[in-house]
Write a structure and sequence with these properties.
CATH topology: Growth Hormone, Chain: A
CATH superfamily: MFS general substrate transporter like domains
Number of strands: 0
Oligomer: single chain
Largest sheet: none
Strand content: under 5%
Number of helices: 20
Shape: globular
Radius of gyration: 23 Å
CATH architecture: Up-down Bundle
Length: 455
């Protein structure tokens, strides 16, 4: 495909950034994420523990990885990310079944490697693409790049959500084999690995994509003696501290990160419970993949809307829009409407897309090139730390609500108790979100006044 010299997509790094986001972030096992762990023989408690390990791995590695990207180059970290993705998928693709300790160990290592990969990619890929525009193009084209990137990624989501759910089910796979005239019958223990195999292929494509990237040359980036490991470590530490200090001294950056965090962690917590929500509003499990693909289709439209919003509206207006949509979706979820309950969950995904677009646009616009990846990593750190905290709070809440429901009625079975506790727990989210917004707003206001008084 040919592009005009003035097009941001004429640059190989931009095209590869879009491809990397699709290959790395879109995975075939997402529509069956929870039941995949269970079908391997793990318990729900082990599933929760493993994802806690994943979140804390990201938190611990997030900022150092961003500083490392600013120091040794974005390409090195993105290539490493792709290699880690391949290894983590190989673990699940070939771990033998039957030995619970071996399986748990494989999944534990998988979660650690996955967390490291997420941390290394966070900030480095965006910084690579944005700095390419700074060095060779026009940074004002960044909203166009984000628009296309998000639309391409969501197009891939449509495919992977549908295909992943189909190939996971031995019933659908055997039906397809029978239609093809093949006398082959596969059981669930075989087909449950098919989404893993397909994701492994995406990991290989991700590696090929990143190997072809080139670190852009920015005239004002830091120079450092590469001969001394100690000097590198000191420089990474200095970059990390400098970026943190810059965020604290830049009210706009701090506000973008904190308000983005306040929206993201609440909505992301709800997204992880999508299948349980659908089950409670009496949707058949076979429809989950189709619903996910339909929601992903919104991702073909939302980025174009977000791009128009950042080009024509002030940041405060976009923030108020995101907050209003968040409250609307949270309130809609508390109603648990049969069938129509899909709408507020779809609005959750739409609001998350807008939040992701806005935070990326505004942070990249104001960040200095030499510390852009580190600053974006601070954003990832804040988002994941908040997500981890709300996960702990929610686990405590759902446990207390379960005990309350069980104490008030001895006739309910385990499923009904779980569903009742879940319904009650969702009603807390609008109030929690309002409290977080009040706290964040107060912090930003006080910080802004302090910065003005110190000038």
């Amino acid at each position: 495909m040919k592009f005009s010299p003035d097009s941001p997509f004429a640059h190989s790094n931009i095209r590869r950034f879009i491809a990397f986001r699709a290959f790395f972030n879109v995975r075939f096992y997402y529509p069956v994420f929870t039941i995949l762990f269970l079908d391997y023989g793990l318990s729900i408690e082990q599933f929760a523990l493993l994802n806690t390990v994943w979140a804390f791995t990201i938190v611990l590695a997030e900022v150092p990885s961003g500083a490392l990207a600013d120091l040794i180059g974005r390409k090195s970290l993105l290539v490493t990310t792709s290699i880690l993705t391949i290894i983590e998928m190989l673990l699940l693709a070939f771990v033998p079944l039957g030995n619970s300790q071996l399986i748990f160990g494989a999944f534990l290592l998988n979660r650690i490697l996955s967390g490291l990969a997420e941390a290394l990619a966070s900030g480095a890929d965006e910084a690579m693409a944005y700095d390419t525009l700074v060095a060779n193009g026009d940074p004002e084209d960044w909203p166009k790049v984000l628009d296309i990137q998000m639309r391409v990624r969501n197009f891939f989501y449509i495919i992977t959500m549908t295909v992943g759910a189909l190939v996971y089910s031995h019933t659908s796979v055997n039906s397809a084999l029978d239609w093809l005239g093949l006398q082959i019958v596969l059981d669930q223990q075989v087909t449950m690995r098919f989404p893993i195999y397909l994701t492994l292929v995406l990991g290989v494509l991700s590696l090929i994509t990143t190997l072809g990237m080139k670190d852009p040359v920015i005239s004002n980036t830091h120079e450092i003696d590469s001969s001394s490991l100690l000097k590198k470590i000191k420089h990474v530490s200095r970059l990390t501290i400098m970026a943190g200090g810059w965020i604290l001294q830049t009210p706009m950056a701090l506000a973008v990160i904190l308000f983005g965090m306040s929206v993201d962690h609440v909505l992301r917590m709800l997204v992880t419970m999508t299948s349980q929500y659908y089950r409670v509003i009496n949707l058949p499990e076979a429809s989950f993949g189709v619903i996910g693909a339909a929601i992903a289709m919104l991702g073909l439209i939302v980025p174009r809307i977000a791009r128009a919003m950042v080009e024509h509206l002030r940041p405060i207006h976009n923030l108020l829009c995101v907050i209003a949509l968040s409250f609307l979706s949270l309130w809609g979820l508390t109603l648990f409407l049969p069938i129509f309950g899909i709408l507020p969950m779809a609005l959750v995904f739409v609001t998350m897309m807008l939040t992701s677009f806005f935070t990326s646009h505004y942070l990249n616009k104001i960040a200095e090139p030499q510390q852009r990846a580190t600053i974006l990593s601070y954003k990832g750190l804040a988002f994941n730390m908040a997500y981890g905290i709300v996960g702990i709070l929610y686990a405590s809440l759902i446990g207390n609500l379960r005990d309350t429901v069980q104490g008030t009625s001895q006739t309910l079975n385990t499923t009904l108790i779980e569903n009742s506790a879940f319904r009650l727990s969702i009603s807390y989210f609008p109030w929690y979100f309002a409290a977080i917004l009040f706290l964040i707003g107060a912090i930003c206001l006080l910080h802004f006044r302090f910065m003005r008084s110190s000038d």
